[in-house]
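Job type: complex structure
Entries:
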Amino acid sequence: MDTSEAFPQNVLPPDETKRLMDNAPSKITPAPTLKAIDDVDAGLTAAGYIPNRQIATAVYLAHHLQKPILVEGPAGVGKTELAKSVAAWMNLPLIRMQCYEGLDESKSLYEWKYGKQLLYTQILKDKIGSVISESDNLARALDKLHAFGDIFFSRNFLEPRPLLRALEQPSGAVLLIDEIDKSDQEFEAFLLEILSDYQVSVPEIGSIQAAVAPVVLLTSNSTRDLGDALKRRCLHLHIGFPDEKLEARIISSRVPGIDERLLRQLVTFVQQLRTLDLKKLPSVSETIDWAKVMVLLHTSVLDVTVVRDTLNVLLKFEADIEAAGKQLAAMTHKAQQAAGIA
Amino acid sequence: MKFTTSDNTIPATASEPLRRFLQVARGAGLRVSAAEGIDAARAVDVVGYTERAVLKQALGLVLAKTPDEKALYDETFDLFFKHEALAGDGPFGEAAPGADEDGAQPQGGESALALLLLSDNRGELATAVESAGRESGVQNIRFFTQKNLYTRRILTRMGLRELEDEMEKLRESGTPEGMDNAALLQDRLDTLRASVRDLVERNLLLYARGDTEAFREQLLKNARLTNIDRRDLERMRVLVREMTKKLATRYAKTRRRRLRGQLDVRRTLRKNMGWGGVPFITVWKQKRIEKPRVMVLCDVSGSVAAMAQFLLMFLYALNEVMADLRAFAYSGSLIEVSEILEKEPVEQAIVSIMQRIGYGSSNYGNSLVDFEEGWMPFVTNKTTVIILGDARGNNNDPRTDILARISQRAKRLIWLNPEYPALWGTGDSDMPRYAPYCNLVTECSTLRHLDRVISDILESTR
């Protein structure tokens, strides 16, 4: 079926389109480089990250809609790596904030430089006589002191933490909020203002708006369910395990110089391993590690002994290694077949 | 309970096909807020309509927020486009195949519908069916029982009555030509009826799924657990999981609440060493709210067993907010089953428990003696003891003295009885004898009851 007919072109009347555009955060102009999803694909590939179509679409949309991406998926499929690669490709600084239980705004947003404030108070104490000596009455003296009071709570005494730093970058930034599911629910609520408007409020100063909206990526391992409010503000990207072809491309980009036939065997083997009922399935990062080990060992053909000796690179639980142990021979054989060896 | 999906919550900025899709998505059970509708419109604006795969992914990123929703979304998207294509409606579908030009036009046909049927122009016919469907509001269909109603409505709107009159007239005329024509019309009408039914069914599938599910879930939450159908067990499990998740998040949060107002002097001084002990940063005492320790005694004699299964499912799903849970099963005597429950998933565990001790006639006195001998020392002033049973001890000694001792030691003693309160005390029921020693005696026969009771227990530990 032809989809161009299923949805007509130019469905929005011009004024509607304009209204929509006005709704979008206004100060922010998208960089001109992103014309098509293929550009994202090419850019990320150049940065060493092989995206699937879904990931490329997400980055493309996030850029144009000015929305954060919430990335979910099992550990080690490249959630954090995606943020790093986006930063490398767009040539923006990567600002990373690791979430944990008890994280609050003084650690994530800003902190007053207490030490400096104290130091300046001491200096002021010494100079106070000379400062107010010119004022002939009490009211004037107090006015002068008020002026100093404001100085103490100005930008000069503000210590920016990751979130504020990301907003303050003059050319924009990639903000990675890692493992948001580890933080408290209160913190999640606190993030909402930043994620939807790209601004934060500091009571003593007012709200600070981003000069250029940062690209925001949040990652989650789903250890707890995130709030609906947070999810609603994000594009929701689920990264699963890659298929055989994609995984092979990823490995060959991460482990340059790996023998083509060895690569086939490794990938086929790992893909089979993922079909087993294991506590923790091996991720892409584990496959990469394993491939590096194989290259170090100068292995060119997978056999049962090599696999058994190095299986702890792939599987992290004793029970899993045991469970996989019985089927190693069959799986190795199949992997060899796939590479055309056996 | 809500069965209507009002149109006005879908933002006006969305284009017509997108609006329809959002409505369908809601019908299928995706939660699409107005803001998400706007986002969807913006996303479509960015990616355009040209590539269906891209469109699907883009909308999926905006609308579906969990793996479950992703699957539902994919299904709905495909279904919707199949539907749109079949509708043969203006720019959204393919042009229906034209009429076969050759072949003699049969005579007769006075009513519009008869003419349409005789012309055998399938494209026009499909368009007529579709527009009659829209006019009779077929997208408001919610229950499968409404299928005939809507089929009838659409046919009537297309002029069924006139057609039937005409067919009647043709048959009465008695001429062989008239009879032939009537037979032909009847034939085509049957085909038409089938295609209208198709349309109605498609609409039911598209628009009504979410509401039907919601309706079913409402029923299940209020159904007596002893009457749950085997085929509904899977759905019940999902429901229990959902309810417990809600409880767990609600109570996990309150466990680490700050007690503002009590300064922790030692830690404050320590933290402010760097500034010569001038307290720039204050540290407040935090009170850890303890998790409840629960001991459950479940009657597994025939009638109560179904109930026990759900109670245990509930409690085990809450292990995140429960510090310590020990489960016991009894009918004639009492054994501890915590280990079985830990090793096996609850549903299977129940089966193996039943094999070991279930189905006997219950003896409350005996079971209480077993409990006192084996586990009484573990009941502390932090323990909540829950007894689930109908208190029908087959006229054995109820041993209320033991229950009194448990009550003295425990923080709380709760009795859950799956029988209607009106039946307590009738026949061999010892409920009134046990009741004075319990902090709470309550009827507990539906999921909703369970939810309330467990929530109470968690509440009391705040």
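Summary: Strands of chain A lie at 69-72, 94-98, 110-112, 158-160, 174-178, 199-202, 206-209, 215-220, 235-238. Residues 110-159 of chain A form one domain.
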